[in-house]
Amino acid sequence: MKDGFVKIAAAAVDIRVADTVYNADNIIKAIKNAADNGAKLIVLPELCVTAYTCGELFLQKRLIDSAKDAVTRICAETADRDIIAVIGVPAAVNNRLYNCAAVINKGEVKGLVPKLNIPSYSEFYESRHFTAGSRNVRYIDFCGHTVPFGANILFRAKNLPDFVLAVEICEDLWTVVPPSSNHALAGAAVIANLSASDELIAKDEYRESLVKSQSARLYGAYVYSGAGYGESSTDLVYSGDCIIAENGAVLARSEKFKNECVYTEIDLERMVSERRRTTTYQSAANDDYITVDVDFEIGGTALTRRIEKYPFVPSDEAKRETRCEQILTIQSAGLKKRLDHTSCKSAVVGVSGGLDSTLALLVTVRAFDALGLDRKGITAITMPCFGTTDRTHNNAVNFADSLGVTLKEINIKDSVAKHFEDIGQPDNVYDVTYENCQARERTQVLMDYANKIGGMVIGTGDMSELALGWATYNGDHMSMYGVNAGVPKTLIRYLVDYEARKTGNHALKKTLEDILATPVSPELLPPKDGEISQKTEHIVGPYELHDFFLYYLMRFGFTPSKILRLAVYAFQGVYEREFILGWLKVFYRRFFSQQFKRSCLPDGPKVGSVALSPRGDWRMPSDASVRIWMDELETL
Known about the structure:
Elements: E1 5-11, H1 20-36, E2 41-43, H2 61-77, E3 84-93, E4 96-105, E5 108-114, E6 138-142, E7 145-149, E8 153-157, E9 160-169, H3 171-174, H4 179-185, E10 190-195, H5 203-218, E11 221-226, E12 242-246, E13 249-253, E14 261-267, H6 268-277, E15 290-294, H7 317-341, E16 347-350, H8 355-371, E17 378-382, H9 390-403, E18 406-409, H10 413-423, H11 432-453, E19 456-459, H12 463-468, E20 481-482, H13 489-502, H14 506-516, H15 536-539, H16 543-556, H17 560-570, H18 577-593, H19 595-598, H20 627-634
Parallel strand pairs: 1-2, 2-3, 8-15, 9-10, 10-11, 16-17, 16-19, 17-18, 19-20
Antiparallel strand pairs: 1-14, 3-4, 4-5, 6-7, 8-9, 11-12, 12-13
């Protein structure tokens, strides 16, 4: 499967209680449809061959024999389909009856997995009919073949070794230590759960939380298929709830009370990456397990799962609001601790009228308020120079005034011009020296003024700029505490917007809204007709793309080709493939070449799962070569 994606399915099928012929017909139909739709795995409900609610009929030999016949027919009639099917069936073994999952592939039962935890409480009374299974694997005769029987079976795809399937059944998930925990440590990346969980008020919410949390805990995929319409309604109702989760996120879920098949693609490479990255995930020796080969063809898998354009920004508005408050709290708490530890009651922030410095000042105000310090102890310094426009200058001034901090304006044109003269830099040559002289002069002013008042310079640079090296070394690259160092550019806009919407200060709200509408720019080149001439995203590329690249590079270690594929899929209708590829090349070149700037970062709080601090998440030599990544990019 290209890039580790495998299409899978979970289905609830129409059944009739104890009618194994009818049930087999619909199971066969479901398996064939799933295979024809490109799925390589389908999971069906617990005891779907007979129905879960057969009661005392499970003690009838006719039913058990008929169930075995049904499995034989299912194998025969799906043998030509390129899929693994997991179906629920009762099986008699050595004078005991077991609630089992039969794993079927290419016309054979590859293994029979018994339920380990048999519930006999409240509405459940399975122990009247079934015996608890064992983890230990033995071989039995089933449907005319010798098959492994036991819980500790791993089903590994011959052509895709990262695809390792294990099975648990319904109540197994609800126990203190689910069998799937051991299965995952033994190597299983995909867990199938065949279930017959009845529907009660709020039970669906708890069921989802179990599936999500187990997939997160196991760094794997969890495929849950619940019994639905067709089960007896004598005392209970079943909804056909089917859920597919991966690493703590629900990728697909069926509509309840409607038997249907849901599909999605799981990402095996992402799971493997998470397990490798997390050192507390300790794979265990699997001597107690046997591995059974299963088979399906390797080919391309079309993507249908949701890939967010902004992986750092929750798409759900309520979650986004909560996330914004959490991030602002983390940022301000970090600064609060640093101010308190150093007994510092003054802070200096360079304000430009741009997003980054706006967020830094908002965070500084929160920290001062939390410490009970006078906001006048915060000095917001605006330093107009050759590229400053009236719009950004006015926004910086109005912003500081509306917050009630101390505002100081220091025009640096003359000092930069003198520096040009000192080093022989023509004032009409708009090169990197022309730009960096201004950035370093601003930092010198901030540092020296902070010394003068016994204050701390609060850094404004964000994580996206650090990734690209879009900062002047020993200029805006440096501060005494960098509150934005863990925040990507795409998220900063939402943080500022959040503050704009929640404030009751009309002047502050109006200024923040105009700052949000201002193009991102360092304003180091002279304006044209009074407007910003230097737009960052025209030079280094769209930050929404770079943040996307950064997330998948750092969080999962994906290859350039996979990152490109995901970006093309996520930004379809927004950017063409060649446009994305061009900026991806820029991203890799800059990310590797600019590591030296990240190697000496000021302290700053980590706020998310991706961070670039050389003392924490990202330790890379400044002379690491980008060659093999660029070689791959040149082939795309």
